[in-house]
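Chapter review. Work through the record for Helix-turn-helix transcriptional regulator before attempting the end-of-chapter questions.
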Amino acid sequence: MKITEIKSCFVGPAISPEQFIAEHFFLFLAKGTMNGYDGNKHYILSPGESCLVRKNRLARYNKIKSNNEFEKVIIFFDEPFLKNFQQKHTITLKKHTSKDAFIRIKKDKLINSFLLSLEPYYNGSGIISTTFSDLKREELLLILLALQPELSDVLFDYGVPGRVDLEAFMQKNYKFNVNMKRFAFLTGRSLSAFKRDFKTIFDETPNRWLVKRRLQEARFLIEEKGQKVTDIYQDLGFEDLSHFSFAFKKEFGSTATELSESGNLPQ
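Structure tokens for Helix-turn-helix transcriptional regulator:
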């Protein structure tokens, strides 16, 4: 059974480049390696492994090709689908709690058989036909709940994030590149309340604080840890190197490259 023959596949919308998980999705990795980070833990997914990535979480994932190849299967479980599934099947909650954004799925022949069964349903672009997508999603969800019943507590929780400590949340998650509406939602606030509370706590606007906080961390990583500019700017939430370089020079008066070469910057 050659799972590596599985092609790339999406059932549901494409993954947003924004580092916010809007809907639960199942991810199986056929070729390559994936590194994930959710603000608390780092995760590594190797070929033949799968996980459930849960919604309403901040997460970042980087792919590493193997022999210039990276193949995956991604199947979304959006809320309307889950509610419809719940009407058709008896769901028992297990009172299981987990803070992980990436929940590893046990290896099992049922998963392997399911993945191989997808191949006849691919269309020419490597995507499963919408005619069969809900049917295959339902089959996968039944398998997952049979293998790990505790997933019901994650998948069928339709609640929204509650109000949290804003300062602690932002200090932990400032590296994620998401907009203010996402940050507000994840801290249990309206956008206006988020901005008001932010100003009270940090005496700064959210956008300006995020840039300064990311640049402070960049300076620390370059100056104290000897890391390369090209290795850190994306992990710190900057979309491109030119934006990072411009912001760094504006903040500190010298470029990050000059700091890297000299080992110090003016105070």
